[in-house]
Amino acid sequence: MKMAPVLTHNHLQTVETLVSTASNSSDPVQLNFVRQLDEAREEAGIANPILLFNQSSDIWAQDFIEPGYASMPGPNGPISIRVILRSAQSTRTGGRQVFEQLRGPGIGGFQPSSGSGSGFGHREIDSYGNLETIPPYTSKSGVSYKAGRIIMGKHFDQLPAKALLDFLYAQQVQSPLILEAGWLLVGHVDEFVQFIPYDNDLGFTISIADTESAIELLKDLQANGHGDTLAMSFETPSEEEELHVFGLGLTVSDILANTTFADVNAYAQRHINSNLQILLSEIPLNPADVIRVPTLFHDVGNTFDLFWGSDGLPPRTDPVIEGERKLMSVYPASINGIVVEKRYLSPKPWGPVVNGTDVLASAVERVYSRAGMSVGWIDDYLSHHVGGGEIHCGSNTLRQTDLVWWN
To answer: Which residue ranges form the domains of the chain, and what is each CATH number?
Structure first.
């Protein structure tokens, strides 16, 4: 098994266990999120109980670990071991749980080297929300990726930690494909792209954030006499609650009249289109099969560093480059959800409500129905959205490990 590559999971592999964080059982908002996630687990038919990290208050279970596996042929099918990768964020104590809580019979751990390029501090580029995996395919150039291929995001002139990239390239069979995520404040690929099962020759398609369909949705509301409807239906728990989000209290017409907002989303769409073209130049996918998920963004610059606080370490995000921006999603972004076969667990978007119906949620249900997927909603507004992420960021999945990659 020492000679077998360590592989990362893709969304076509069966989910065996959902993972999240109990946050030391001290945060009622996080525990409410866990309760909803557990209910969604049961509805999705996942038999194993939810696995909760319990030795750290780090709620971003997607980011400090990446579940992987190594496997080889056996007399009765593949023999495998789980290998949990710790993020290359040397001061992120949540990652210690790879060894303190997970490592044991059948589960190993990977610790990035402590040498140069190991990822000192807590740089967001080194979080594992910035690592996703294309399901198995043969590229347009004829390269076969039988275990799928990793995608990661660079931040313009910044790459993820060398210690991690060296490790991933050394595995050879999933050699990372690099996209551009520097236009986002947090800068993770899971903020704008995912891969979902689909009835085509590949067995999957690309699901990607799309600002144009979201803006058209708002324009349709305005044209039909609903311009005075609140653009966001979430209600702040109390007047004293300060939420670092855009859109609360604004109407649909307010949003559409904001020229800066229009410029920001055109900027986002240019980067999304560029990333999509990189993927389509690699994957033999019919562009008509791409699932476009309505999503809107706003520009936060580097102001969120004040929200995260200063711990004396290097900043978690890079400075804004001249001519570029740092964006976050306005609504809880439905692209950032959990794929459980034909069931999709999505952040509740809290879009405009007309005649008792959240029109943004209805639009999300329609686009995922193209892939034959049903949508279940989880409210992560206070637990994760206000902190810069969504339910995918706050969870993880242990998936099947019997994929045959060696033929």
So the answer is: 7-399 (3.75.10.10)
